[in-house]
What does this fold into?
Amino acid sequence: MKNYDCIVGIDVSKLKLDVVFLVKPEGKQHKHIIVSNDKKGIKGIVNHLKKNGVNPSKSLFCFEDTGVYSSPLCYYLSANQLRYWIIPALEIKRSKGISRGKTDKSDARDIAFYAHTHLHKIREGKVAEKDIAELKLLISERDKLLKSIRLFESNKENEKFLPAEITKKMLKINKETIKHLKKSLLKIEARMLEIVSGNEMLSEQQELLTSIIGIGTQTAINLIVVTKGFTTFDNWRQLACYAGVAPFEYSSGSSIRGRTKVSHLADKKLKSLLNMCAMTAVKLDSELRLYYERKVAEGKSKMLVLNNVRAKLLARAFAVINRGTPYLNIRKYAS
It folds into this structure.
């Protein structure tokens, strides 16, 4: 476990950063400053450390993941080779115990003290390479377009119940809108494929992942983005836990024996994609189809077995990436 001269807790908001410096956490000595959430403000945090005789390169900067608002911090700290830790907000909230009141200053202090007491769990942050960052943004835009298309297409139901003179103009406008949205969707998907094909590592990983029966292009790209090129998870079990497909026991003493189930704390988008992949795999992959039928015949719940198939697909994904060779269905060679 590394030792740091200073732990910097940062509460990130749209316009400003509340910063607490923990030079001697044991004595609860800390200082609070407020800077703007931009390059100038972040540089001011580093300069404050230098003015107080603290080496920024021996400090740890900690903050919650607030999406685009925390991006300036990530890029600046990474560019200057300074260590930082992005901590899940829920971890900090549940570590506080009983608390009353809430301010940006107290949040920054909570982040700093959490980092100090949980250094054994540290996973230093790393900015995703440019192509993965752009893919992440494109996936978000694609999801918005798909949702918009579904919303506009739902208006076709009005045609069945309302007079034609009322719905005619509205449906015409909707049709034009949907046509435009679908064109934009095709452009985004084309750009995603262009990025992947232009990056040797991403192209190879996509090819390996799509060799697995049930995993399509979009799911492969999502897996690459979520794992940042399969660098943020050590094994498939960690990813299964993140995606919400890993089952957990629920028991206490000798009287409470709850049903083993997955956690609701999960990446719902990835879980949904894996669910569709599992249903496709059960239909097209003879090995998984036989597994599914056998377990259901044994009396297992269909959703439980389908969840196991999701986990198997993640295991196969890590296997092909680590091995560097496409998935080979050896069952078809069995005599």
Summary: The two ends are 53 Å apart (CA to CA). The chain has 13 helices and seven strands. The longest helix spans residues 164-198. Strands lie at 6-12, 16-24, 29-36, 59-64, 83-87, 247-252, 256-262.
